[in-house]
Specification:
MetI-like_sf; Peptide ABC transporter; MetI-like fold; membrane; BPD_transp_1_N; mainly alpha; 13 helices; 316 residues; transmembrane helix
């Protein structure tokens, strides 16, 4: 329980640090945010209008007061309102965030099923035909950029074979089957690189664990290979796999921009791009902060998985 409370406290501290950095970044960036927002057309804005916007954004108040006000709003879950339409940013994020998480979750599921299973089989049959072919395909999957994979997927499956639509979004509640069909290509595109990474990590980890003394002892006792693989090899080999998966999922939280753009998937990344293009400053801060909080939360979950996979972590 003490270990859990310690990790939880560290996660909360990290969230506070991230929130503080995001706030300080506002004041470190050269230029007046209000003036930048009003200068999208290229012409110099009216100073009176700039001053009104500064007052509206609270930029005229002392920095410490702005910081305390921002932290208080964060504790209440208030991310402010969009400068474009005045709508609450939290509401827009709440609408788009599940779509991005669904995309990443589907990609992660596909990657784990393919990467871990093929990596294990390749390690068991190391040096064989399956190992050589799978390793070559994994290397190819790591070398091709995600936007190229997405473009080829649209060209092959949507335009040539016409199996799936080229892109778009349909709510699951409206048409579950069509929703999953439209989810398949963007999730599969992300899964190509991630499954290749998991394949290589799993293969290396299984080969390394196989050579350990406790595995050799289990073999000498006459235990079946299937039991040794599931109870002694995979349990230890999954620890680095979980690490790599968590790091890549954190990266995907901020790296789905291209995929969502190519497939016209209305997720959180699309909101961030639109906010940057429109100079919607509060929306940019809100999205970045939410992504950061999710990353910290993901690391906390990984710590919990470590404790389950390796009880020594709790006593370290």
């Amino acid at each position: 329980m003490e270990w859990f409370a310690k990790r939880l406290g560290i996660s909360v501290l990290l969230v506070w640090i991230v929130a503080s950095i995001v706030f300080l970044a506002i004041h470190l960036v050269p230029g007046d945010p209000a003036e930048l927002l009003l200068s999208q057309g290229g012409a110099a804005p009216d100073p009176a209008i700039v001053e009104d916007l500064r007052d509206q954004l609270g930029l005229n108040r002392p920095v410490l007061e702005q910081y305390l006000h921002s932290m208080a709003n964060l504790l209440r879950g208030d991310l402010g309102n969009s400068l474009m339409d005045g709508a609450p940013i939290a509401g827009e994020i709440a609408t788009r965030l599940p779509r991005t998480l669904e995309l990443i979750g589907a990609a992660a599921l596909i990657s784990v099923l393919i990467g871990v299973s093929t990596g294990t089989l390749a390690a068991v049959a190391a040096g064989g035909p399956f190992d050589r072919v799978a390793s070559a395909l994994a290397g190819l999957g790591l070398s091709v950029p995600v936007f190229v994979i997405g473009t080829l997927a649209i060209l092959g499956f949507a335009q040539t074979l016409r199996w799936v639509p080229a892109g778009g979004f349909v709510a699951f509640s409206q048409d579950p089957v069509q929703h999953l069909i439209m989810l398949a290509m963007p999730a599969g595109t992300i899964a190509v690189g991630l499954s290749s990474t998991l394949f290589r990590v799993t293969r290396s980890a299984v080969l390394e664990v196989t050579m350990r003394d406790h595995v050799r002892t289990a073999r000498s006792k006459g235990l079946s290979f299937r039991r040794i693989l599931t109870r002694h090899i995979l349990r230890n080999a999954l620890i680095p796999v979980v690490t790599v998966l968590a790091l890549n999922l954190g990266t995907l939280l901020g790296g789905t921009v291209l995929v969502e753009y190519v497939f016209n998937w209305p997720g959180l990344s699309g909101l961030l791009v639109d906010a940057v293009n429109a100079r919607d400053y509060p929306a940019v801060v809100g999205v970045v902060l939410v992504i950061s909080i999710l990353f910290v939360t993901l690391n906390f979950v990984v710590d919990m998985l470590y404790a389950v996979l390796d009880p020594r972590v709790r006593h370290g």
